Amino acid sequence: MEGLLVKGYGGFYYVDDGKRLWACSLRGRFRVRKQVFLPGDRVEFLVVDDARQTGVVEAVLPRRNELLRPPVANMDQVVVVLAAVDPKPDLWLLDRLLMMIRTAGADPVICFNKRDLDPEGLSELVGIYEPAGFRMAVTSTVTGFGLDGLREIMKDRTTVFAGPSGVGKSSLLNALETNLRLKTGEISAKLGRGKHTTRHVELLALSFGGWVADTPGFSQIYLPEKVKAADLAELYPDFRPYTDQCQFASCLHRGEPVCGVRAAAEDGRLDSGRYERYRMFLDEALSRERRY
Ligand SMILES: Nc1nc2c(ncn2[C@@H]2O[C@H](COP(=O)(O)OP(=O)(O)OP(=O)(O)O)[C@@H](O)[C@H]2O)c(=O)[nH]1
Ligand SMILES: [Mg+2]
Ligand SMILES: [Zn+2]
Fold this sequence. Notes:
This protein folds into 3 domains: 2-60, CATH 2.40.50.140; 66-214, 3-Layer(aba) Sandwich (Rossmann fold); 229-291, Ribonucleotide Reductase Protein R1, domain 1 (Orthogonal Bundle). The protein has 7 helices and 13 strands. It has helices at residues 28-33, 91-104, 119-129, 147-154, 169-176, 260-266, 272-291, and strands spanning 2-9, 12-16, 21-26, 42-49, 54-60, 66-68, 71-73, 77-83, 107-113, 135-138, 157-162, 202-205, 210-214. The strands form 3 sheets. The chain has a 6-stranded mixed sheet, sandwiched between helices. A hairpin with a 4-residue loop joins strand 12 (202-205) and strand 13. Helix 2 (91-104) crosses helix 7 (272-291). It is globular, with a radius of gyration of 21 Å. The relative contact order is 0.12. Zinc ion binds at residues 246, 251, 253, 256, 259-261.
């Protein structure tokens, strides 16, 4: 039999064959090799007990892509969720994630949630990222704003929600799909952060078509190893209009005397925050390359 691995939990892998959910264990040889299976993997399994819906995973099919933060495979797109406030939007994390997603071979989508708490603040953020060419949703689970648009983006695709704890990833999924009843948490009043309510990655079938993975929030990620300093700017669609004004084709848009990107950031055609964060990531990539 073949199916979709929807979650790993308590030593079992749960596999959906399109009709039923099977609790599968692993063949010993997988355990020996320490092979990691991820939600989103397509697997082959043998039925052990049909009535109790148990099986054994026999093989994993080749992956189209994989992410490590959050750990999932074969995603069409990653919706990065940030809140207007509570917690305060972390654009460093956002820009890192956007690069990571592209590098992994999935489509990034940005979702700014909790619009009800600060609509003006969100317009400002949209003003930075929409011209940069990213697909976006602006939502509120309280007023229902933007939920239809987000459903439209997710329909018939495999999507993973990623982002810090407390931004409303599980709340959004509950609002998009009323029968899910995922557990949601509060924001710590003292720290202004979420409390890591979601503990496991789980793929859920959407009634309007497609799959979605809810994931635990995280706050730290590193640049993917395979991102090289020289390729970093290619992950910035908003730099593209200005690169032909750089003197050198190999311009890193750092301190080069004639650089279209830097010039655009200086006179406001390009968002200066995006440029500054790029410069920090570039330094990070460069120092890493010097180290190895
Ligand atoms: N005002 C407002 N609050 C929201 C909105 N969406 C979610 N919340 C609240 O934000 C808090 C955190 O929501 P969760 O859905 O648990 O956040 P999460 O991103 O799943 O967090 P983790 O599972 O910890 O990663 C809850 O108290 C929600 O009620 C929104 O659109 N507006
Ligand atoms: Mg959650
Ligand atoms: Zn340049």
